[in-house]
Every structure is written in structure tokens, then in C-alpha cells.
Amino acid sequence: MKPTLLLLLKAIGTILCISSLHSTIMVAQADANYIIKEDFAKFKKGSEEQPDPSNIADPDSENIPENYTQEEGWRGGGVYQAGGSCFINSYEVWGVPTDGVIKTPKKDLEGTIVIRFRARSNEAGKSDLNVWLSNGITNEKISSLALTKEWTQYSFVYSIADGITMERAYIAFRGVTGALLSFYIDDIEVRKFEESGKELTFDIQQMHPYLNAPTEEFQNDFKEYQAEGDHNTYSTTFQDKAYTLITNADERGLLESIKLTASSTTLDEYLAILNLGKGNNSLGTFFGAKFSGKTSGVKQTIDETIALLQSNANELRVVAIFNPHTGVYFVLDWDKGTYSLTLCRNYLPLYIDSFITALHSPFELYMAKHYYLCNRINLFGLLKLNFPAIKNSQGDLFTMDCIASSDKQSIQEININLNTKDNSDNTKAIAIWKSEAQRFVKVFTSFIELYATDASGKKIQRFSNLEEAIAFVESDNREHGVTLVTQQNEKQIALVINKKSLFYLLNRAKEKPAISLHYTLPLETPLSFEITFKEPLRVDWGDGQLQTIEKGSLISGKLKGQHVYIFGNPTSFNTEGTQLEAIDVSGARHLTTLECANNNLKEIYLGDNVELQTLDLEKNKLKSINLSGLTQLKKLLLGNNELSSLNLSGLSQLTRLQVDNNKDLATLNLSPAPMLLMLSVSNCNLNELNLSDNTSIVKIVAQDNAISTIALEAHPNLESLNLQGNNLSSITIPNSPNLQSLNLSNNKLQNIEITKGEKLQEVLLSHNALTSINNDIWKNAMRLNIGANKINKISVSNNKQLRDLYVYANQLTTNEMLSLAESIYSRKGANEPGHLYYVQKGNTGGNRIALQAVALLREKNWDIYEVEQTEDGWIEKNLSDEDLKNHPNELQSISSPSITCCYHYGRLSFSAPVTSFSVYTLSGEIITTVTQEGKDFSITLPRGYFLVVAQTTNQIFQQIIVL
After folding, report:
1. Which superfamily, per CATH, for 30-192?
2. Which CATH number fits domain 896-962: 2.30.30, 2.60.40, 3.40.50, 1.25.10?
3. CB atoms within 10 A of CB 692
4. What is the pLDDT of residue 22?
5. Predicted TM-score (pTM) of this structure
């Protein structure tokens, strides 16, 4: 039952405030107990963002037409429809501005009532709401509330004196007098309070362990004492007096206080309880009493407190505080004639997001809200609230100062400091900072800037993520400072650790530049940027002087310092090729295009640039990048950087990604980008590429990696695939009917399976280990490269669109060259010849040239080329007939070897072993081919002249024989 979470107190007086961010159990009361119930469902016009402009309350009578509410009798001023809720705004009465108000129908009220409603401000921290009970004669303020932008539910119990009925009474919800501020209100309920019929004995020692535990624990253990329909209200007794017990939960759902109120109270009762504290351990140690009113101060003893009350009770508020247990206060709160008793935490929990709402809120109201836990200090004109106990979830102790503005009206700054003892222990302070920093980045999901500072506060290093900052702090041992800072609207929140202290600082944010640029160029270096904008810009070229730019698409100036700041609202920005080293665009919330290619960028800071669609950072020196806030990004170019990892989380709209030449990039998770159409990841260090979630992809370029397998089963839109220079030994492409370009060169392919290749125009399969190929798969291909494989037979009879055919460095014999020439389609009449790349320079063991095939190719309008690989690339030479006759691969050009052959009685014998041979007629017709190694072969030949072409392990020779 011991608490683990520490959360911000939200109770004011008897109010139970329930944040809309968590659920609190409520049971509907029987309709008979409801006095008023209004949900404003008939306020149909307008919306919360844009309320209807018509004030529906009559300016003279204040009446609201009955067709707008569940029952007639509602009144008010400045009442507007807001799409199912009520918007209250200031309005004019006889030309005088007046605070808006809405009033319930008049009812006869008696006994104890429960009032519930939801409300929120129109401007964060600037809307205050007063709740009044009135019958036209008596006006009684029930509560004052500081509203926030979030819808919050308020519930409180109010007791009318025994035996008294307030006739024709109504409840008014009004803005603070004279403030002329607006607010929203909804779901107003007023009902009779029904006790459970059972009384719970209030016991401090029994109940304090429930504090800071989930409220449901208290509710479950004491549910038999709950008031009907209200899990937060109970009947109880204390010192033989009946009270209403109200449990108050903070916005995290933890029990922050247990409060006792009664319909009538007396000073004697209060003094009797106070006297219990004399030597009575059940109330705990007496910590003193704060008093305020005509005079203020502190009383150190119970007797001094009693004497003070006996002399001036009706003009003072006196808060006597006891400490019954560690972390717990029992508070006796006397307020000018009435009292309440509260068991509560003696600290505020350190939840920094809760303190943000206090910044710029009314000073006095915040003090009243936390009166038990803070001290009001006015020192030499500096007014502040000091909270001596703020605890984080690990129980580490901090102190907090809320400093008032110069007019003393609001809180302008909040400082939260680690206690002196822990701060002096470097190891412990760093551990606490690390824990707070990790919580900081979870709470504030928008852009967070992280940087290190020297002793003067000057930034000396920026960090791209929290892990880098933590590593710096742990190794630096607090010699330098490290700051985490973010902004929420006009508020700035910073977490700082340095040599002297660890603290949070909350204050008003300074105007943030839309774009900040960092250079180390000489002063007076000219700079120019392409930029688009709708409103005038201001530029600081580094000397603090602002230059206003009214119009144009190019801004130019000379560098006056290391930083250039651009203020305003740019929509696109291009700083390509300016030797930029760092850029921060977190303030450019409406930026759609950012182009910073070809610079020296080592750091880039992107915030919630939710409108950014194009980001070009090619040719820089980036080692890491945080893209988490770019939810609308479509085009991302990061080629030629030094990235070792890339997180695409949140980039669900990304359609084009280019990260070529990041040689340390070994893995890439593409699943967060399901809409990806174009991917280019060449020359990285990838050994796999998972595209299972990228089923819409059209183009893949992933050459020069180490990819050994790839699955392409579900990519029907794929048009271009380039996997050149990987480790693929086989590949299957079963369902890509739109594939037009395929490049699988320079792999280890032995097998290719493509089911649908009808649209393929270009097929590049050179430098693999293929032994055969089925060219019917890509019968419409115009360019086919199967050079440098192990193919000994090729047919292109069905490839009628072929224009460029590469077959060099294979194992084609003269016969196969002739077969190829016969199968290739004729380009007679075409404007340009076909191109057959048949031999590779220096590769005399490759394809053989048959002059008869050459003649046939010439007749079909095909040129024959020799290719040569050099350091600068491939050179192609169109071979003439003379070149072909004298080419090393042409058989007739080979010099006569020492080996001879003869034919005798059906046997062909060689003077030395051969590996294969063929016999031709002199017209070029092949008689037979033998691929068996040996010297003596059985073969039958007719009479006539024949050409024998034979091959040994190191040479080819030919000889004419006569039979």
C-alpha cells in the first residue's frame, strides 16, 4: 500500500479536481437525487475551436431561451454555443465590458449538495473561474479555480446550515471580476448528498499509508462507507463528531489528501482537537502554525496558537500542522469561523509537466492551492513561494521557488534545486540527473535541445541524443555543464547539471530563431541563401544587428560572427554549398523544404517540423540524425554522409529515401515507411534488405552492398531493381509484372527465376556464374547483358526488340556463334545497327569467332564489338572485318602449332592429347564435335576436304585433311 508515485496536489478547499487524462470511478445517482443536470447537447452551433458568434443570453433579462437547455430557467451573459459545450466570454452592458457568467435555474436548496462540472480555459493559465451560491440576497463564494487548457472535472460538497432552506437559490459560474477572460464549461450537475448509512471512524494511523497509493485501494477497502453514487465521499466520525470525508486524487490517480468537513463547526471543537496534540502521539509532532489575516506570522507552540485564536479567531486563518508519520501532514485549518481537517502528503511530487501549468498562473491562487506546503517570502521586494519539499519518484528531495512577476500578480519563474547533501555527492547527483533526464525526454516528446556549456554558460558542444549527453556527463564528472531544454508554447523548460548544482528552470521562452546556422569561415565572407516566406524576415548575420527582409527569394549578407540567425516564418530554405557546419531549424514550424546538400554539416537539429516534406542533406559529414518529429516527410536524401544507423520511426508518409555511400550503415529498418516508392542504398554495408512492409515500392537501387538474400514476393508495382555488386547466388521475382529494368551484375548468381518479365526493357546479368539462360522470359528486352558468365549456348530467336546484346567472356564455340547469328533477328532497314558485344580484349580463352557468323551478322545489320575494362571504366570498340580476321579469337589467325592429326581407316589420331575438337566442311558446315579428352578417336568421314579445329589445355589449332 506504500505509495510509489508523487503527483501534484490539485485540491482547493473541498474541491475534488480530476484530470481528464485519467479515469476516476463514478457511479450514476438515481435521477430522484438530481436537482440540476445539464449537458449543453442543444448548444449545437459552432465548435470548441470556433464558438458560434451569437450571444444567446438576452442582454436585459439574462434569460437563455428554453429550447437551448434541458429545463428552463437558465440565465447568463456572454453565453455562446460551442458544438455541444458552453463558451463563456466577456460582453458589454450599456457599453461597459462585463465578465461572462452562466447561472443555473433557481431551486430551493437545503442540507448538503454535491456540485460537479467540467471546465477549461480559453488561454492556458489565463482563465480563472469563481463559483457562487446566491439567492439574490446572500452571495457566497464556494470556490475560485485556475483553469487550464485541458478539460478538467471538478466535484465538491457544500453544506447549507442545518434547518435552513435557501429559497430560489442558484449557482453562478463567473469569470474573475474585472479580468474579462473566457472559459468553457460543460456537464453541470447539482444533486442531493446521500450518506451511506454507515459511519467510518477516522484514524490517522490507519489511513496515512493510503496516501500516494492508487485511490482505488482506499475506495475498495472502505467501499461500504461510501456515499451513494460517489466513490470519493464517505460518512465518518472523529472525536465523536460527524464529518464528511472526501478523498482527493491527483492527476495521476494517486491519493493526495483525505479531508474532513462538517456542516457546522465551532472554535471550541477546533481548540479541543488542537489540545489533543499536547503529548498525544496520534496527531504526531507539532510543526507549528501559520496564520494570516490582519496580521501574519508563525506560532511555535500549541499554547501560543490557542492564545492567538482565543483573541482574534474570526479575523484569522490559522493552519496548525502536525507530522504523524514520515512524508505525512495532519492539518487543522481554521478559516475565520469554520475549520476542516486534512491528512495529506507533506511534499509536492516532482512531475515537471504539472509545474508548467503553474508558470504564469496567478501567484496568490497558487499559494492558496498549496498553502500547507509552501512559505510566502518577501525579501527586498522579491516575492516568492518556497516549497521546502519536492520529491521525485525515487524519493530524492528537491526544493522549489516560485518567483512572482514584478507586479506580484503571477508566477514568472520556477526554480527546482536538488538538496545540498545529494548535490555535493557527484556520483549520486549524476545518477539523479540521469534519471530525471530520461524522464524529461519521455514527458516532452517535442524537440529537445541538448548541449554542454563551459563555466561562463557558453555552448561548447551539442548532442544529437540523450545517450551522448549521458556519456559526456559520466566521463566529464560535472566539470562542464549539460542542459536539456525544450519549449511548450511560450514557456521554456530546462534541466541543468553543472559543477555547482542540479536544477530545473521554468520561465518565459525568449524568441527562438526559426533557423540558426553555424560557420567557422572568416568574418566578412559573403553568404547567400534561397528562401521563401510570406511575412517579413529578420536576419542577424552574427553581430546582433537585425536586417529586415520584406520580399524576394534570395537573402545575402556578410558573416559577422560564427552564427547567423533568421527570425520569422520561412517555408523553404536552401543553403547548399556554403560550408555550413551546423543548423537548427526547430523554430521553423512551417518549413516544407530544407536543402543543405554539399556542406560540412556535422550537426542538424530538427524539432517538430511537422510540415517538412523535403529534406536534402547529401554530401555532408553527419554521423547521426534525429527525424522523429518529421511526420509529413516525403523525400529524404542523406547520401554521402557518415551515418552508422538511421531510425525512420514516425516517417509513415516517406516515399523517397536515398542513403547511398554511408559505408558504416550495416542495418536499415524500412518497416516504419510503408508508403516508400523509391529506395537508393548503394555502397553501404548492408547484408540484408527487408522490404516486406514496402509493398508499394517502384524503384530499388541497392548496388555494392553485401546482400546475400532478398525476398520480393509481394511487390507488384516494382519497375526497376538494381542489386549489382552483392553476394546473391540465386533470386526469385515471382510477382512484379511491371518490372522494366533489372540489374543483377557482379553477384554470384547460378539461378534466376522470374515469373513475369514481359515489360523488361533492360536486363543486366554480367559477371555472375550462370551456365545457361532463358531469354524468352524477357522477350521484349532492348538491352541484354549476360557477359562474363559460363554460358556455352545462347538463343535470342524470340527477342525481337533487342538492340544491345552483351555476350563477351563466355564459352561460345564457333558453332554457337553461328547459332547465335542465325537466331538473332534481322535489323535490315533499321536506322541504326544492332550492337553485339562478343569478345573481351585479353580474354583469348573466351568466345570463338566464326567468320561465317560474322558475315551473317553483317547481313542482318549487326555490328560486332570488343570490350575492354580499364580503371576509368569500359571501352567499346566496333570491330571491322579486318579486325575480326586478325583477332586472337578467330581460328584462322592462329599460327600452326606443333601438333598434327591424321585420318586412317575410320580413326582420327592426334600427335598429342586434345580436350575437344570439331570437324567442318570447307564451306563451314559442322560435321561433328567431340568434347572427350584423348589422342585417338573413332570417327567416320566421307571422302573430301575437311577442317579439323582442336583445343588443348593451352592452345587451339586447325588443320585441313584430305580423304
Report:
1. Galactose-binding domain-like (2.60.120.260)
2. 2.60.40
3. 12
4. 27
5. 0.51
